[in-house]
Amino acid sequence: MKIPVLLVAVTLSACATQTPRIATRAAAAKRLAKPTSPRLRLGWVSWNEPREIVACTRRVDDNGNTVGVMGPCYRIGDDSTAHRLVSWLNGDDPDRNPANVILADWENRCSLIIEDYQAVPSPRPARLIMITPSGKKVLDEWTPSPKDEGDAFQVEATFSTDGTVMASVHLSIGLGEGERIIGIAGAKVFSTPACE
Predict the structure, then answer these.
(1) What DSSP line would sit under 163-178, residue for residue?
(2) Which residues contact 139 (CB under 8 A, 6 or more apart)?
(3) Is residue 113 pLDDT above 70, yes or no?
(4) Residues with Cβ < 8 Å from 122, sequence gap 6 or more?
(5) Reduced to 3 states, what is the DSSP secondary structure of residue 13?
(6) What local confidence, expressed as pLDDT, does residue 91 receive?
(7) Is the pLDDT assigned to residue 180 strictly greater than 70?
(8) Arithmetic mean of pLDDT, 73-90
(9) Measured between alpha carbons, how far is 164 from 160 in angstroms, rounded to an integer?
(10) Residue 23, Cα to own-chain centre: how many angstroms?
């Protein structure tokens, strides 16, 4: 008789620890709105703390499904320095919004545009651009260094749960036969600009 009681207690305590995470996801979903032409997110990114993300290299198949084990993973904060991780607590909770997601407050006024890195015919950096009623503002501009291995390079936007902080994640993409390696080359974490 003691075993079932213990099992129920463990089950209930596990449910109790999940409640804040579910509530946070629901609150975030209400604050974020998908743009009219969403861009598929390739990078694996999760918010670890209010001003810090965890980003992991992963392999995906032709359908976008993760193949094998993720890693290496990095913790990146305000100083944009990547610290390699061994483990973290919320590894199963990545940002699943489109790569050019916008805040619900911006809807019908502001949007994000992603421009991929271009090497030829003339070099152009990867950019994250915010379009506002008063014009456009480059939020991040990244040119991969020679040590960044990949066949394609791009940036993706992600917002913290409360929308006050955002990050531009730098991706190096290796194109293979039936498989892609989505590497994390770095990120820029900054306060979310006003839509004006």
Answers:
(1) SSEEEEEEEEEEEETT
(2) 112, 128, 129, 130, 157, 166, 168, 190, 193
(3) yes
(4) none
(5) helix
(6) 56
(7) yes
(8) 82
(9) 7
(10) 20
Q: Which residue is associated with the tokens 């810090």?
A: 52
The rounded distance, in Å, linking the Cα atoms of 115 and 124 is 9
Q: With bands split at pLDDT 50, 70 and 90, how would you rate the model's confidence at 8?
A: very low
Which residue type is seen at 125? P
Q: In what order do the strands lie in the sheet with 111-115?
A: 111-115, 126-132, 135-142
pLDDT reported for residue 35: 44
Residue 191: what are its φ and ψ, rounded to 5°? Answer: -65, 140
Look at residue 85 in the predicted model and tell me its pLDDT: 87
Residue 175: count other Cβ atoms within 10 Å of its Cβ.
Answer: 10
DSSP sequence for 93-145: ----S-TT-EEGGGTTT-EEEEE--B-SSS-B-EEEEEEETTEEEEEEEE---
Average pLDDT (29-48) is 71
Q: Hey, what amino acid is at 55? A: A
Q: How confident is the model at residue 104 (pLDDT cuts 50, 70, 90)?
A: confident
In terms of phi and psi (left: phi > 0; alpha: psi -120 to 50; beta: otherwise), the region of 150 is left
Name the one residue in this structure whose structure tokens are 């699943």: 96
